[in-house]
TrEMBL record:
Protein name: 2-aminomuconic semialdehyde dehydrogenase
Its EC number(s): 1.2.1.32
SUPFAM superfamilies assigned: ALDH-like
Record localization: Cytoplasm
Length: 487
């Protein structure tokens, strides 16, 4: 346990200033189990102040040209990039993810989010039609919505927060953001750079705290007409209920139970390393991670043998060690939840091929109290099992055999979620056919996590409502008006 004088103490960022809070919550370093940071426990009062600041800043910010806003976004991207190593170290310590992942994925993507929307905001056009017989032209005009409430989760903290902040402010909105109470540090670090980037006070406000207190105060605030939320399906249901009386605009990016479908003509030399990453990257704590692997029966045994052998090579340990592949899970409670799924599977008669309860985990002395677990592969499990139906959100994946294309599509679609799917086959016709029939917002074939931010991102069924991306975020963060001119 750190001494109280060593603790990092965060402050809310409101109207361009860091403001202390009357109460705080503890934040843990997942790789040691120690409290190392105190996060403001904001509530109605803090949210009220932040919304007021955002409302005050709106008239000036929304009247700036896209070019002026773009320059500030680009400057902020440069400043984060200049500090990339410090941001990566902080993200790894706060979240438990490996330093390698933070250096190569989280922080570069946060930088890119700002650069991307700084550029894309310059290239939108609106629509125009002519009705010659009536002597009319119609055109659309887009304006920012107002104060945007942005709520983000703990798994990719700065990456997902900036995926909302960048388009929201690029479009001319002002914002109140609430990062996860478990991973608030890099959002606070970003606030320190805003003034230098030239961001006017009040455009970006960040309140820290829990979902039930700070998050709900934001969702229920009558002057916040729009909520962009990434997190669990359960929280999204609550947000939908709470925001309904205000008819708010909602974007909901939620959980997944993502299948990988591997046909017998797949190139296993590509498929196996990619499916390992898609199952275990970031400790399996990515909404897009694979957790159900369907393998065509002819190659099932070979796939399982090779996949398990490769899984066992993944090194679990101190996230700051650059040779480590799997860091710590976010919290003790989450670790216990993930482990309980493996126990349930075992009790149902499934076979644990490697990892939890099968292999031993040796941790460095300083990490004995951290929240670590071995990547785990489960086989001989029924489709109805909770491990095949519910989002586990940890380094656990199930592998099962299938025979035909029709059968596997039905089984892959047989869950409440529909976020991302992966299809492996060298038959182009089959790849298109299967991709079309999968109930999923994203389908990757013969690859995983290759993203073009221009194109829509989001889920179907319980995985979400709405899409994010260049055009989609622009449409969400603006209101459109149709204007008719008669001459
Ligand atoms: P969560 O729903 O518990 O929390 C997400 C955020 O919502 C946090 O900031 C939390 O404080 C806040 N929150 C909680 N209750 C709230 C309430 N009543 N009102 C307002 N805000 C509230 O999710 P989590 O555990 O932080 O994140 C993991 C989940 O996020 C997983 O289900 C994962 O699949 C999902 N996720 C989805 C995507 C995507 O793009 N689809 C990306 C990453 C994570």
């Amino acid at each position: 346990m750190a001494h109280s004088e060593d603790l990092l103490v965060l402050k809310n960022f409101i109207a361009g200033k860091f403001v202390p809070c009357s109460s705080y919550i503890d934040s843990y370093n997942p790789s040691t189990g120690d409290v190392y940071c105190r996060v403001p426990d904001s509530g109605i009062e803090e949210v009220e102040a932040a919304v007021r600041a955002a409302k005050d800043a709106f008239p000036i910010w929304s009247s700036k040209s896209p070019w002026e806003r773009s320059q500030i976004l680009n400057k902020l991207a440069d400043l984060i990039e200049d500090d990339l190593e410090a941001f990566a170290q902080a993200e790894s310590k706060d979240q438990g993810k490996t330093i390698t992942f933070a250096r190569t994925v989280d922080i570069p993507r946060a930088v890119y989010n700002f650069r991307f929307f700084a550029s894309s905001i310059l290239h939108h056009t609106t629509e125009c039609t002519e009705m010659a017989s009536m002597g009319c032209v119609h055109y659309t005009s887009r304006t920012p919505v107002g104060v945007a409430g942005l709520i983000s989760p703990w798994n990719l903290p700065l990456y997902l927060l900036t995926w909302k902040v960048a388009p929201a402010i690029a479009c001319g909105n002002t914002i109140v953001a609430k990062p996860s109470e478990m991973t608030s540090v890099t959002a606070w670090m970003m606030c320190k750079l805003l003034e230098k980037a030239g961001m006017p006070p009040g455009v970006v406000n960040v309140v820290f705290g829990t979902g039930t207190k700070a998050g709900e105060a934001l969702v229920c605030h009558p002057d916040v007409p729009l909520i962009s939320f990434t997190g669990s399906t359960l929280t999204a249901q609550r947000i939908t209920e709470k925001s309904a009386p205000h008819c708010k605009k909602l974007s909901l990016e939620l959980g997944g139970k993502n299948p990988a479908i591997i046909f017998d003509d797949a190139d296993l030399s590509q498929c196996i390393p990619t499916t390992l990453r898609s199952s275990f990257a970031n400790q399996g704590e990515i909404c897009l991670c694979t957790s159900r692997i369907f393998v065509q029966r002819g190659i099932y045994s070979e796939f399982v043998k090779r996949f398990v052998a490769e899984t066992k090579k993944w090194k679990v340990g101190n996230p700051s060690d650059p040779t480590v592949d799997v860091g710590a899970l976010i919290s003790k409670e989450h670790l216990e939840k993930v482990r309980s799924y493996v126990k349930k599977a075992k009790a149902e008669g499934a076979r644990i091929l490697c990892g939890e309860g099968v292999d031993s985990l040796a941790l460095p002395a300083g990490n004995q109290k951290g929240y670590f677990m071995l990547p785990t592969v489960i086989a001989e499990i029924k489709d109805e099992s909770c491990c095949m139906q519910e989002e586990i959100f940890g380094p656990v994946t199930c592998v099962v055999a299938f025979d035909t294309e029709d059968e596997v599509i039905k089984r892959a679609n047989g869950v409440k979620y529909g976020l991302a799917a992966t299809v492996w086959s060298s038959n182009v016709g089959r790849v298109h056919r299967v991709a079309r029939r999968l109930q999923s917002g994203l389908v990757w074939t013969n690859c995983w996590l290759v993203r073009d931010l221009n194109l829509p991102f989001g889920g179907v069924k319980a995985s979400g409502i709405g899409r994010e991306g260049a055009k989609d975020s622009y449409e969400f963060f603006t209101e459109v008006k149709t204007i008719t001119i008669k001459h």
